Amino acid sequence: MLLPSALLVFGAGSWGTALALVLARQHYPVYLWGKNPDHVRTMQEQRCNARFLPNAAFPDNLQAVTDFATLMPAVQDIIIVVPSHGFRETLQKIKPYVTSQHRLCWATKGLEYQTGLLLHEVARAELGENIPLAVLSGPSFASEVAAALPTAVTIATNDTAYARHLAQLFHHSSFRAYTSNDMVGVQIGGAVKNVIAIATGIADGLKMGANTRAALITRGLSEIVRLGTALGGQRETFMGLAGLGDLVLTCTDNQSRNRRFGYYLAQGTDITSAQAQVGQVVEGVHAATITHQLAQKHAVEMPIVEHVNHVLTGQCTLLEAAQALLAREPKPEM
Ligand SMILES: NC(=O)C1=CN([C@@H]2O[C@H](COP(=O)(O)OP(=O)(O)OC[C@H]3O[C@@H](n4cnc5c(N)ncnc54)[C@H](OP(=O)(O)O)[C@@H]3O)[C@@H](O)[C@H]2O)C=CC1
Ligand SMILES: O=C(CO)COP(=O)(O)O
């Protein structure tokens, strides 16, 4: 069993804060790093993250910080929870301080926009082969986790000892982590469900009904399985928490920013204003483009993702996308 020391969480948005709270409730010393000094100062003064999770008070062992360099020697576990567009930048910040004592887990959901790389590939490229890596993903709205409502997630890593350690670290009376060795499957599930959630948000905004929503979720899952297995993910992973679980959550509940973003588009709001209206990260916008490109590269059919991408890049209207999906040639379901 690896012994936990202080824990350092990078990313003081809603999800980084919620995970820091889970760990702090386990009585570990937890540092929550935020990139915005004013925001960090406010968290220090108010002893909560009023901007994202106003109702969750920080326990004494949770400290918001802007300086991480001096903490790194006292830390073994690093948890990155910044949006995917800041993932490599965060790794580059910490890289000069990372040693063989550290291990890295992330809860970011997405792919690298510029390269289409999965985040474990980005982490390997930046930090080399010697650091244990893991990804945490699954159906988990930050506000429910902060409110200590029961939640289950998957932690995927190739390092069995690290898997056990992380599952134990996050294990709480209202938070349960299952382990997996399928880093590719877990990451593809978490990234692509955001694109399908945009599609269901659009369909619900256009009042297409419950049948359409169920069809999008189910056919969306087929697309995720096709791409995920083509990239080396395991089929069973997509039937688990980080696949079907997160897909259903995000496609059906208005707490999802991706779903709300799609809904706003269906109200006639333009893309920039819809993102502003959500007011937080909407990972599915970038993920639509990268996933579409990955699908083309690997010759995988992903019509829902393709049409969401067409809508977001101005190649067709919402109604044209819906008509094009319905006009596809009949084919076997499986
Ligand atoms: N919220 C949720 O329920 C869940 C979110 N996730 C995933 O967690 C990740 C983070 O999302 P979430 O916390 O919700 O996002 P939020 O929109 O709540 O917050 C984003 C935070 O990231 C900060 N940020 C932006 N760019 C950078 C950067 N380059 N480096 C460091 N920090 C940066 C922002 O700071 P500032 O505003 O000052 O720029 C802000 O504090 C996403 O990949 C998301 O998909 C996963 C599961 C659940
Ligand atoms: O990933 C999430 C819950 O598991 C959060 O989804 P949204 O980013 O769509 O809000």
From TrEMBL:
Lineage summary: Bacteria, Pseudomonadati, Pseudomonadota, Gammaproteobacteria, Thiotrichales
Cellular location(s): Cytoplasm
EC number(s) stated in the UniProt entry for this protein: 1.1.1.94
SUPFAM superfamilies membership: 6-phosphogluconate dehydrogenase C-terminal domain-like (SSF48179), NAD(P)-binding Rossmann-fold domains (SSF51735)
Sequence positions that bind substrate: K109, R257, N258
Primary location group: cytoplasm
Keyword Mitochondrion: no
Role according to the record: Catalyzes the reduction of the glycolytic intermediate dihydroxyacetone phosphate (DHAP) to sn-glycerol 3-phosphate (G3P), the key precursor for phospholipid synthesis.
One example GO MF annotation: glycerol-3-phosphate dehydrogenase (NAD+) activity
Binding site for NAD(+): G11, A12, G13, S14, W15, G16, A142, R257
The keyword NADP appears for this protein: yes
PANTHER family per the UniProt record, alphabetical: GLYCEROL-3-PHOSPHATE DEHYDROGENASE, GLYCEROL-3-PHOSPHATE DEHYDROGENASE [NAD(+)] 2, CHLOROPLASTIC
HAMAP family (alphabetical): NAD_Glyc3P_dehydrog
Glycerol-3-phosphate dehydrogenase NAD-dependent C-terminal domain segment(s): 182-321
GO cellular component entries: cytosol
Residues that, per the record, bind NADPH: S14, W15, K35, K109, A142, R257, V281, E283
Chain ranges of the Glycerol-3-phosphate dehydrogenase NAD-dependent N-terminal domain: 9-162
Keywords on record: Cytoplasm, Lipid biosynthesis, Lipid metabolism, NAD, NADP, Nucleotide-binding, Oxidoreductase, Phospholipid biosynthesis, Phospholipid metabolism
Record's protein name: Glycerol-3-phosphate dehydrogenase [NAD(P)+]
